[in-house]
Sequence to fold (609 residues):
Amino acid sequence: MCGIIGYVGQKKSLPILLTGLKRLEYRGYDSAGIAVLTEGGLMVAKSSGKIDRLIQEIGDNQDIDSTQGIAHTRWATHGEPTQLNAHPHTDAQGEIALVHNGIIENYRTLREFLRRNGYDTRTDTDTETLVQLIRYNYDGCLTEAVRNALNQVDGTYGIAVISSLHPGQIVVARMGSPLVIGHGEGENLVASDVSAMLDHTNRVVYLEDGEIATVTADSYEVTTIQNVKINHKVEEVTWTLDEIEKGGYDHFMLKEIHEQPTTLRNAIRGRLNHEEGIPRLNGLNLQYDELRNIKRILITACGTSFHAGLIGRYMIEELARLPVEVEYASEFRYRSPIIDENTIMLAISQSGETADTRAAMCEAKHRGATVLGLVNVVGSTIARETDGGVYLHAGPEIGVASTKAFTSQVMALSLVTCLLARMRHLSVQAGQEIIQAIENIPDQVEQLLQAGDQIKEIAAQYYRSNNCLYLGRGINYPAALEGALKLKEISYIHAEGYPAAEMKHGPIALIDENMPVVVIALKDAVYNKVMSNISEVQTRRGKVIAIATEGDTEIAERVNHVIYIPQTYRLLTPLLSIIPLQLLAYHIAVMRGCNVDQPRNLAKSVTVE
Ligand code: G6P
Fold:
């Protein structure tokens, strides 16, 4: 969602804050701002649009003498993304500045209360109410003012506050939105995301919900909102600067697509036991008998992670013979789900911070389920709130449209499936076969990525389309959904994924000579049926781009374009079929001149409901 960075130390703060903001831009990018403390008091600069606009706005002031400040990149919830509504927000005296991620849900009531007490608000934001409330509570100590204000607040927040009345201090707090303290030499940073401070330190302290910290250049003191002292250990982040830079690629998304052979290798490293045909997933924290006691699995997730979950359902039901339900986290939490002690919830999240997914987990926990996570970001909230899980080890994903995290999620699901199946009735030999197929996948993805030019040529023929249909069946139906999501997210072409046979019940009405239809038509049990669906498209002059199994020459004669994927174990095919779909979306978006890494209106990590 929004991004926060703050610095207090000996160096000039503005360049540090601006570089940090650039690294955070993928989290939200409709407006941005900074507040730095100078000898003359707080200097605030804000602008609508991207960080480059803010940099222009600051102009020559970049060199200003200041060793302390906070900054923010916004994804608007309350109030349009104008310069006025951009963060930081300040009190009327211009002495306290605040940046905030999240939503102050009772801001209307608080605003009324503040108005009655002589505090006027100038913006449409919920955040300004909070800074006024801090001012109202101020009685000589910034931390106490923040604490008292937060005690009056309902909602979610990650905040950073500075004040000209308290030079050398940044006060931060979290409830529902991530906040990390970066521990440096004679300097400390605060941020919503570790990638913003990797230039300076990889030693971090994660705040928990309901905690406040007072950070100075050489100390940080954490307390709960009720003022109980907390000692957190400093953790080391293993991500490197290289991983959060483009490394010669035009876009993060392209880099991340090409990283997939490596990220998939990382997802399985040390986890395959060939001899026993069984994966090792110690992070699940479940003994074999506990795994055998599982009677039902609920998968919950949002967006791309939800599509990975749908693939997981096909895998687990077929191989482990366990009933699986997959539900959008935002829906799950507002019904009254039936859960017992033999139900496992599997929460899937790249960022580990998605508010809806967290809320669904919380609901499942209240009802007695064990909650496991498939999470990419180590130390993220979901990773810490689950009873166990599987880390994806995909490294930082910066492109807003998820690619490498998706394939790692599917890979992790294949490992979980194989383990659950081997705990039940899957033979050693069948387990060994799956493990071998899993091990071959990274090389096969590498091979597929070499077909990039062919996909670029196809993209060149269709990038002006207004609509696009994606069809698949069985386990490749969710891959079709994911292919369609990629295209619509980054190219703004209207794209829908459908089960191939379902096309005739509606979407077929849309097909004419201007409609490209991407069909995943692999050599499997439903191949002939899918070929019939292809004919139905062609009869209506639709253009067919087929994703087909290597060696299938028949299909090449029947469709407009064919992209081959190597043969693999049937339930692993989405790991390969999605690669050309990611590349197709990428090239089309580039040809349309879209901002691939930061598509309009989207955010990488959605920490509000
Ligand atoms: C946002 C992102 C998507 C992502 C979804 C779920 O909508 O733009 O790319 O799939 O959130 O995020 P998560 O971090 O929980 O996987």
Remarks:
- The CA atoms of residues 469 and 517 lie 5 Å apart.
- The pocket of 6-O-phosphono-alpha-D-glucopyranose is lined by residues 302-305, 349-351, 354, 357, 400-402, 602, 604-606 (CB under 6 Å).
- The chain is about 35% helix and 25% strand.
- The chain has a mean pLDDT of 94.
